[in-house]
Specification:
single chain; 2 domains; 3-stranded parallel beta sheet; disordered C terminus; 18 strands; alpha+beta; Polyamine Oxidase, Chain A, domain 2; about 350 residues; about 30% strand; FAD/NAD(P)-binding domain
Length: about 350
């Protein structure tokens, strides 16, 4: 399996449960993909070093649409990996799609993928640069270092632009389609600031206009640490604004987003810590458009999954991964390699 986001983790879990030997490759240091939590350290007013965490990727799991995803969410709630959240919206915020609760992973957002990958062989920090198929199966090339393992099947749970060069030599039509599948970017601001006037009475703000798509108080989320006199902000820019500033220096993006936050709140903020992160492939452009939930070539033992196939969002990605595993199980592929890492982080000072 190449990719340890929710699509890759769901696919790997289903294959392992069915008895396949699965190994997951990811160029990052851990699971999660867009189900991400950033850890940072800062020095407080008395010189003590403090850790702060920001859920800077997908802010929640949505209310389930399908019965199968509902069963998955219900089980995760029962095991304590998910908790329901009904955020209080700011005055003037756009409404959420519906009044159903959202779901937040605990203690952090990657926990859901870690739980799915429990017991699966994992290869972190391994960027997959090539796939080679021979008479003895698939071979994974990690930065010029060929993995000695051979696999009967390979699944890529990657953004389409990253999957395309890996599958081009094996399924050219898949690669061409992937390159024509647009993904929307998102610049995200994470920061600790002093409160603005009285304590805020809301958790979430979705502005109707301007560069900001979402302002979230991370400390107001379920089972997240709170500190007196601190607001932990996670702010997502709109896709159009993020696209316009995609290659801008991180420092310029940070300043622009901080100014936009102050404008939305109607008061300047005193930031104690602030960074930005660029999600180059945050979400499919055609949200919810499902033409084929996955791609699978049983003859080659090659598959693709992800939200660009299964539908936008966490449920779409999970659906794609589990549907692909079903198809692979029907083909009785006994060994699978799943590789992935889907994002292009750009830290900022």
């Amino acid at each position: 399996m190449i990719g340890a986001g929710i699509a890759g983790a769901a696919c790997a879990r289903a294959l392992a449960t069915a008895g396949a030997q699965v190994r997951v490759y990811d160029k990052s240091r851990g699971a999660g993909g867009r189900l991400a939590t950033r850890r940072a350290e800062r020095v407080d007013d008395v010189g003590a070093l403090r850790e702060v965490r920001f859920d800077h990727g997908a802010p929640w799991l949505p209310a389930p649409r399908s019965m199968r995803f509902r069963r998955f969410v219900d089980r995760a709630v029962w095991t304590g990996d998910l908790v329901a959240w009904k955020p209080t919206l700011a005055e003037g915020s756009l409404p959420l799609d519906d009044a159903s609760p959202r779901y937040v992973a605990v203690p952090d957002m990657p926990q859901l993928c870690r739980r799915l990958l429990d017991g699966v062989a994992l290869a972190w920090g391994r960027q997959v640069l090539g796939l080679h198929r021979g008479a003895d199966g698939w071979r994974i090339d990690c930065g010029g270092e060929a993995d000695p393992e051979r696999f009967d099947a390979v699944v890529l749970a990657l953004p389409p632009a990253q999957a395309a060069p890996l599958v081009a030599a094996h399924r050219d039509a898949w690669a061409r389609h992937a390159l024509l599948t647009p993904m929307q970017p998102c610049w995200t601001l994470m920061g600790v600031a002093d409160p603005v006037g009285p304590e805020l009475a809301w958790d979430l703000d979705c502005p109707p206009t301007g560069p900001l798509a979402l302002l979230m108080r991370n400390e107001a989320r379920p089972m997240r640490p709170r500190r007196q006199g601190e607001v932990h902000w996670v702010v997502h820019a709109r896709p159009a604004w993020s696209r316009e500033h995609l290659e801008s220096p991180a420092g310029d993006v940070l300043a622009a987003l901080q100014e936009a936050v102050s404008g939305r709140l109607g008061a300047p903020l005193h930031w104690r810590h602030a960074v930005v992160h660029r999600w180059r492939y945050a979400m499919p452009l055609m949200a919810g458009a499902v033409f084929q939930a996955f791609r699978w070539d049983a003859t080659l033992g090659l598959g693709l999954c992800g939200d660009h196939l299964g539908g936008s969002g966490i449920e779409g990605a999970w659906t794609s991964g589990t549907a692909l595993a079903d198809a692979m199980g029907a083909a009785a592929a006994p060994v699978a390699a799943v590789a992935a890492d889907s994002h292009d982080p750009q830290p900022a000072g």
